[in-house]
Amino acid sequence: MSSVPRQKILPFFLPMSGCRYRCVYCDQYVISGETEAPSPERVRAELEKFSGGEGAELAYYGGSFTCLPRKTQAAYLQAAQPALVAGRISGIRISTRPDAVDAETCEFLREQGVSTVELGVQSFSDEVLRKSGRAYGSKQAKAACLRLRAHGFRLGIQLMTGLPGDRDSLARDSMRNSLELGPELLRIYPTLVLENTELARLYRAGLYQPQSLTAAVALCADLLAMATAAHCPVQRIGLNPSPELEKALLDGPYHPALGGLVREALRLEQIRRLLRGYDPATPAVLRFPQRELPLVFGQKRAGLLALGREYPLLALEPDAELPAGLLIWEQGSKARELPEEEYCCQRREELAKADARMGGCSYME
């Protein structure tokens, strides 16, 4: 499954810091569980105790880092310099808006040791961006991504599903456009309706209907398949669970282990693809990597129960020798295998054809 290898990251959240606009869906105090940003002094003190080593990063999440006053940015970035020099971290990661990374800003960030920039693009649909209060367009988002790559940053792109005006084909088109830009990592966040947001008002007025959990999982599984086929890691799917988030949640596809549900759904569809032509009257065997047993069985054994209903004579055999993502089906004299990447490539092509029939478009053309 396309995911980012474990990396040591020391995160600090700067909720709403530098935000020029209030997007219809956003309350970063609730999302992060933080009520205020840390001081640069606190960051420096925490870094003195942190020993991440090679590949480790200090991360400033939340807010729009490059919209902060330059003096404030410098203070936060300077707090990391002793740790960079000592080798306790290898770089700095920030998150910001696509309309806040001009050439001068990129040069400043590089000089200060920033290595990764995550852009909250959310969508490449101009309609969706406008209805969500993002105050920039798809062309500006594309230009920002290309500018960051030209300046040598590792590029991360954050996408959201279920925003006002969004639909599945638009979300898939946003993923296609993201992958064309060559990011090193992706995040996917289905939209939640949180108290004290404009989206909450629209929801109560009957002007916005969030995705169901089932619909969000199915769409995110398609997006994950597209990213996997392109060898682009997906860092996270869904917001971090917290008591603050759950208290403020009015509606939407929330689950504390949403990423797990999505990956299980993708694996179940891969199994179904492999078992096309299955004879329900003949015993069969499905072999899969032993370490992926939780992925096949699913949370609360949902995958196992589904397979039992659909394929009553199918035996499941974990195999410690199989490489990650490889499935093998054996039934009588028949035997067939399906690697995850092959399935994801097939699914990507199917989705492209289906969206083309629906009149899908690329917003960066």
What distance lies between the first and last C-alpha atoms, to the nearest angstrom?
30 Å
CATH class designation of the largest domain: Alpha Beta
Task: Based on the coordinates given, report the CATH architecture of the largest domain.
Answer: Alpha-Beta Barrel
How many β-strand runs? Answer: 13
Instruction: Spell out the CATH superfamily of the largest domain.
Output: Aldolase class I
Question: Are there runs of 5+ residues with pLDDT below 50, and where?
Answer: 361-365
Per DSSP, the total helix count is 15
Count of folded domains: 2
SSE sequence, one letter per element: EHHEHHEHEHHEHEEHHEHEHEHHEEEH
- As a percent range, the share of helical residues equals 40-55%
Oligomer: single chain
Rounded radius of gyration (Å): 22 Å
Q: What strand line-up does the widest sheet have? A: 1-2-3-4-5-6-8
Strand composition percent: 15-25%
Largest sheet, strands/sense/barrel? 7 strands, parallel
Cα shape: globular
The averaged pLDDT comes out at 92
Structural class: alpha/beta
Could you say what the CATH topology of the largest domain is called? TIM Barrel
What labels would you give this structure?
365 residues, TIM Barrel, four-stranded mixed β-sheet, 15 helices, disordered C terminus
